[in-house]
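Supplementary notes for students who missed Thursday's class. We covered one full example, reproduced here. Read the sequence, then the structure, then the short commentary at the end.
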Amino acid sequence: MTRIFHRSARSTDFISALEGAAQQPHRPSGATMTATLIAAAVLVLAGCAGEGGSPSRPVISATPSATPTATPLASPTVACPESESQGPWGDVIATEQVSDAAGSYCHTALDPAAAAAQFDVSVVDLESLATYGFTIEDAEAAHQAALSYVAGQGLDSSRLDEYSMADSAWFDTAKDAFSPAAQERFAPLVEAYGLRDAGVIITQSLPPLSRVGGPRATTTAVSVDKIYGTLDLDQVTPLLVVRTRFTTAYPAADAAIVDAAIRNERGTAVLTEDALRNSTPSLFDGSDEEGLVLDGGFNVGFGTGDMAAIAYISSVWSLTTGDGALQIDAVEPEVDPSQR
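Structure (token representation):
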């Protein structure tokens, strides 16, 4: 894959990223939050928590993002015309129709009949559950809550590709999905760095997606590859973590993809339309068939006694063109040099 644009020079091996060893927080220049808050909120809890009682802790690199003016949320209107049997949309179903400044689309939710929605005890680390005081019933409830959030908000929020609402304003509308402690933890992080870098949802990276009345994604695949107990960032409070994976395909006009690649460029690299023509000629063939693929994972954590309210969340992902030739954006852990 040609990485003409890449916000991080690190590996896009997401399983390794989600399982990575202890890592050190990266503090963006100009940040006003304390290093403790950054470490506490951006840390990616992922790894074999049952080994030695100490969780592995990668972090995502956070860069301050511009805060747009708050405007009203995209508004759900009537139910989508598609039935649950139409599509197919992968592991999600079309629910209500949403209208925003770019048009209308069907919001999606986890398909309860999908294989991914079925609880699989084989992915549960029973030893770590026992160590930190969780039960198999807790794991099953957390599995459902985590996948429901990932499918309905993490990958398909109103702010997926329409950024008129400020990050903090969006978080305020969705805060009921989070525990009071998580609201207190993530609100200042979202205010400082945005929803994308806080790992709350996928946002700020996609161009305007095609709106033809159905879901914005042509297909969404989600799964859970591990459920385990560990300690929260305070190294005292038990946390039950559901490690999810996803791959989502989005249709988008070639011109919009080109614009997104150029608009999102950061650092010293020079990216021009001519460079894209040379590296990714399929974006200039007039077919608009390339599209985008989002691949990565969310870690969703829950506290003791409440498997409905999210206590912790983080994400690692990469956004590429459909053929994988061009990486548009990525959120990846900042690896401690001692672990390389």
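Commentary. The beta strands are 75-79, 92-100, 103-110, 219-231, 238-250, 292-303, 306-321, 327-331. Confidence is low (pLDDT under 50) at residues 1-77, 265-269, 335-340. If anything here is unclear, bring it to office hours.
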